[in-house]
Every structure is written in C-alpha cells, then in structure tokens.
Amino acid sequence: MAEGVLFNIAEEIIKTLGSLTAQEVALWWGLKDQLRKLNDTVTRIKAMIQDAEEQAQQHNHQIEDWLMKVREAVYDAEDLLDDFSAQVLRNQLMPGNRVWREVHVFFSKSNQFAYGLRMGHRVKALRETLDGIEIDSKKFNIDVRGEERASLITVREQTTSSEPEITVGRESDKETVKTFLMNSNYKHNVSVISVVGMGGLGKTTLAQHVFNDEQVKAHFGVRLWVSVSGSLDVRKIIKGAVGSDSDDQLESLKKKLEEKIERKKYLLVLDDVWDGEDDGEKWDRLKELLPRDAVGSKIVVTTRSHLIAKFTSTVEPPHVLEGLSVDESWDLFRSKAFPQGQESGHVDERIRKEIVERCCGVPLVIKAIARLMSLKDRAQWLPFIQQELPNRVQDDNIIHTLKLSYDALPSYLKHCFAYCSLFPKGHKIDVKYLIQLWIAQGFVSSSNSGRRCIEIVGLECFESLLWRSFFHEVQKDRFGNIESCKMHDFMHDLATHVAGFQSIKVERLGNRISELTRHVSFDTELDLSLSSAQRLRTLVLLQGGKWDEGAWESICREFRRLRVLVLSDVGMKEVSPLIKKIKHLKYLDLSNNEMEALSNSITSLVNLQVLKLNGCRKLKELPRDIGKLINLRHLDVGCSGCYIDGDLEYMPRGIGKLTSLQTLSYFVVAKKGSSKSEMIGGLDELSRLNELRGRLELRVKGYEGGSCVSEFDGAKLIDKKYLQSSGDAFSSEIRYL
C-alpha cells in the first residue's frame, strides 16, 4: 500500500482550518469551537503519521490497521472541509460585495440554521472518530515529530530533462539485428526476427536503436512501431500499425494498412509480446492481414517468451539477449551513480564485484540501484548490498529488488508512483496530464510549492521519479519540454503491488474492488454496481470502453467524492445536469465525444481545475456561466494541434474571469450581431489571462480578412509572458475560418 499522502492531506486540512475561509464558516454556522478542536486533533495526529508509516513498512500489522483508520478519517475530514470551502466560493460568486449580504441572499434564516446544524453534527462525529484514533495511538510506541514535514527532495541531481540517455554495450546485438534488416536475400517476402530475453535486459531499447538507425531509415520506405504490451491481439496490432482510433472492422483496417504502405518495403516492430491463448492461430491470422507483396519487408518481435520467439521468427535460432558483461555493467552503474566529473576509481573492488554479480547484467536493475546508492553515504554501500540486494537478480525477484528504490522514496512520491498503476501496461503517458492528476488528488501539495507554480513542483516530482528509472522512453517537444513517457512492465507490476487495494485497474468486471478502493480504471465497460465503492476519488474509463448514457445518474448518485472523472472517447452525446452533485471534482476529461453543448450546471463545480474537451468536434458552445469556475487552470477545448476545425462558435462572455487559467488551447473570435451577441465574449476577455502558457491559437469566425484587427489591442497579447515564443511578437496563431 502506498504511503505518504496522509501527511500532505493532514497538512492541507490544518491550513484550511486556520484560513480566513474556515473562520468565516465558523462564524456563519456557529462552528468555531468545533473546528478549533478538530484542528488541534488533526495537528496531533499529523505529528505521528511519518513514524507510523515507517513502522508499517516493517510489517507491523497493528500499526497498519491504525493507519487505515487514520486514512479513512483524514479523507472524511478533507471531504468535509471541501464542502465548506465550496459553499464559501459559491457565496462569493453571488452579486454584491459584503459576505454577510451574500449569505442572506443565498439562504433564508431557517436554511442557515439547518445547514449549520447539519455541518455541526458532521464535524462533531468526525472529531470524535479522530479522538478515538488518537487514544488508540497510545497503545503503540509512535514518535511525535512535531513540525517535521515531508518536503521536496533537496538532493538535486542533474536535471533529467537535459540529461542524455546513456546506452552501454549492445553493439554486437545491434549489429546482428541490423544485418538481418538490411539483408535482402531471405526467401520470405516478409521475414521475422525475434529478440527474446528476461525483463529489464533492454529488448525495447535495442529495437529502438535499430529502428532509428539512419541506414535502416533509408532502407525501408515505411517504418511502423506497435507497443503490444500483451498477448497477440490481431485487431489491436493492426489498429496500432494504421494509427487508427476508430472501431473499424478488420477488413477495413487491412485496407487502410495497405494504403499506408503502398507496396513499399516496410519494417514493423512488435514490441513486448506476451504469452496468451491460441497464439499460433493469432499469429497466422496476423500474417494473413499484413501486406506481403513488398520483397525485403521485415518484422522485429521483442518478447520474454521463448515460445513466442520460436514460432514467430523465420530466423533460426531467435536472437537471445543476454545480460551486460562485467565491464559494461560497471560502466552503466558508474554513469548513473556518480555525477558527471566525479571520480569513481576509488570504489573498493569488493563493492564493484558485489554490485556487478548481484545485478546480473540487467540494465533496469543496475540503473535503479545506482541511483538509490548515489543518495547514500559511501560507508553504507557494502552493508546495503549484502543485507538488501538478492544474491542474483532473476525474473521472480526483480520486483523485490526494484522495491528497494521505492522504499527509499519520500512519502509524497510513493503515492505519485503508485497512482500510475491505473494506466495499462505499455501506455504512452502524457506527462502534463499525469501531473494534473497528481495535483487533483492532492499528491502534489501547495504546501510544497511556496510561491512557485504548483505544476512546476509536479514536474520536479516527475523528474525525481524519472531520475530513479521509474519511468523511461521519454519524448520531448521541439522546445525540449517532456511530453510523454512509459513505464517498464516490471515498474508497472511494482506500482500495482504497492498500490494494493487503493488503486485498481479492472480488466474483468467486478474484480478486487472493495469499499476501501479509492482509484479505479476500467478497460472494458463501467461496472456501476459498485455500491460498496462510494468513496472513489478516481474513476477512469479507458479509451475504447463502452458507455451507456444512463450511467450518468449512477455516477452522480453513487460517486460524489470523485476528484477525477475521465470519460474520453466513449461516444457520449450529452452531459447530465446531475454532474453538479460531484462537487469535489477537480479533473474532468470528456475529450473526443459527441456533445453539442455542455450543461450549465457544470459551472457549479467550483473546485474544478482541469476541463478537457479536446476533439469534441460537434461542440458548439461552452457553458454561459463558465466564469464561475474560478479555480480552473487548464481548459483544453476543440481540436487544438489539428487542422480539422471544430464547431465551436464563440467564447462565452465572462471567460476572462478565469484568471488562474494556464492552458487555453484556442480562442474563437466571433463577430457579434447575432441573437447570441450578449453571450459572446470578445478578445478583451483575454486581457487579464496573463498566466496562460504554451501556445494560444486564435480562430476568427464571421470576419473578412483582417477586419477584426482592431479588437486585438484589447486582448493585451504582448503581456502574456509565459506563452512559448514562436518567433512572433506573441505566441499565438491566427486562423480565419
């Protein structure tokens, strides 16, 4: 079970209780004394959390049970204070300036009393629960650490975004595979080589090096890469090769693949193929669907399974990837354990020998252990190696070995890592959205950020995990910013292990969900019969899952504690007004759906930080009261980055009130004069949005030529200092539609 988020949540609770907002609530509803006592209790419990979590790691089951009770109570406290804060925000959005007048507009006197009484009972019940937990703590020897806090890592390694990826060895392996690819003398029109070896040896890295070799690029007219990360799913593989997200039938996909290849000689890499049922039949079916009329075409298969390697490869024997040599292993360890320029020659020969022998030449393990040991005092190296590392790294103990790196993480990073178990294996993770998910769940806390942008703190968390090899296969944009990454299968297995019942990826309906589950993703269809899981904070329907419009009622009724709701690319045609009931929601992704409009009730979600509507090409308008979403930081709308125009007609008046907005993928400049003129926001709405980052695209509708240029002064685009420069006076693109 991932530890660490409790401390940060407790700290945020204390911060909220002591804020002006909490004091206003106390005055309005007669809760001042109750909230003060709650604050005192949470403060005392917070001081015990860190030591209790450290003891729980030593398999102290009594303290594990105590921490579980703390976890449930702390989550309840956060929900309660979120209710208070949301109510205060709604009041502040009412017309007028005086808070007391706003409250009277919103409530009658009787409603004020009833609301205060109801909240008073909730606070009292929660405080009594926490008091009982505090009394129970006296049974254990838990250290009280006062004001000690989980701070950001102070050890700053070389910034990972600029650190080059180091590859050691494999020249002979690369040459073998490359020679096969460049050889046109094989009897088959499409020849196959399989690269087989245990996990972590670098099969994918080897395939990438060959795939990106300049001579290989020139040799093949078309190169295709499919991350299988599973058994042979013929339809999934053909879809991946075509690059299609549609639900086309196999014959239609086959035709698209033929059109893409156009009889050219092609290279297809099938990365990370697993054992499965009827693999032989599936492989034969796949070969039937692949074009076979381009002589010299090649396929590379990477797999851990010798059985898969044997029946897929036309080359005998398949290429077996071995561990790195002794010298190569030490070179890789040294490159990761010592900062550039630091002398490593004085390391005791006995330590070198122990490291190399125990890691068995497995690069994934070598890199993770090297990073871990670089943070330890040199005197601790030998005892750590002898007492913690297995004698030999093998498939069945790699996760245990990698967990040594996980155990050494600061507490808040443990939860960030475990949360990634919700993604499928082999999934290409969008790093920007991953950080937004962490923030929405409270894993990255404003307590850590000081005056810095919290997204920057989130990026530092990601880079710390990347530096330790928890992520790999990083891709960057043209500005050098990290865009995406993947997790190695073993790292994904580790994330699933440490997440336990808290985070579940459901591959078969109903498996392993409990009332204590907090985060869940489905890869087939939503199982909304999970009445026992009403405390869910994350609900994700992965791309391609099945959607029933009637599911809205169940979601909004059963899962009101959600912070994250992802329902992208499910064919959704409308958003229920009931969504306002999920009042804790901070992250909502409805991308690539078929809605023409969003219910205005969505503007009741005053805690919302992220609203994703990418690819909603039928969407004509945004909610008219969108200005009420005053915590919104990221609004991804339309078809940004593509040249297929969406139907969005205008930007609503009041969008300029969203002064925390960092992402606004595009802004529609619409000509006034229609029946909706009073609802249309002009370019002057941009004048106060000075936190915008990235690239802003302006789409002009209803104007001829440059007739709208006069409006540009009101946008104050020159003041948007965080927009990425593209060589223009401001980083925006203007398109006339």
List the helices and strands and how they pair.
Blueprint: H1 5-17, H2 20-29, H3 32-56, H4 61-92, H5 99-106, H6 109-137, H7 171-182, E1 190-196, H8 203-211, H9 214-219, E2 222-230, H10 234-242, H11 250-261, E3 266-273, H12 279-289, E4 297-303, H13 306-312, E5 319-320, H14 326-337, H15 349-359, H16 363-374, H17 381-388, H18 398-407, H19 411-419, E6 429-430, H20 431-441, H21 446-449, H22 454-467, E7 472-476, E8 482-486, H23 489-499, E9 503-506, E10 519-522, E11 538-541, H24 551-558, E12 564-566, E13 587-589, E14 610-614, E15 634-638, E16 663-664, E17 666-670, E18 696-701, H25 712-715, E19 732-736
Parallel strand pairs: 1-4, 1-5, 2-3, 3-4, 9-10, 10-11, 11-12, 12-13, 13-14, 14-15, 15-16, 17-18, 18-19
Antiparallel strand pairs: 6-8, 7-8
Structural class: alpha/beta
**Beta-strand content estimate:** 5-15%
Number of strands: 19
- How far apart are the termini? 52 Å
Q: Globular, elongated, flat, extended or rod-shaped: what is the shape? A: globular
- In the CATH hierarchy, the architecture of the domain at 171-320 is 3-Layer(aba) Sandwich
**Looking across the biggest beta sheet, what order are the strands in?**
9-10-11-12-13-14-15-16
Q: What is the CATH level 1 assignment of the domain at 171-320?
A: Alpha Beta
CATH fold category name of the domain at 171-320 = Rossmann fold
Describe the largest sheet: 8 strands, parallel
Give me the number of helical elements: 25
Poorly predicted residue ranges: 97-102, 147-162, 725-732
Helical fraction equals 40-55%
CATH superfamily of the domain at 171-320: P-loop containing nucleotide triphosphate hydrolases
Our Rg estimate from Cα atoms comes to: 28 Å
The overall pLDDT, averaged over residues, is: 83
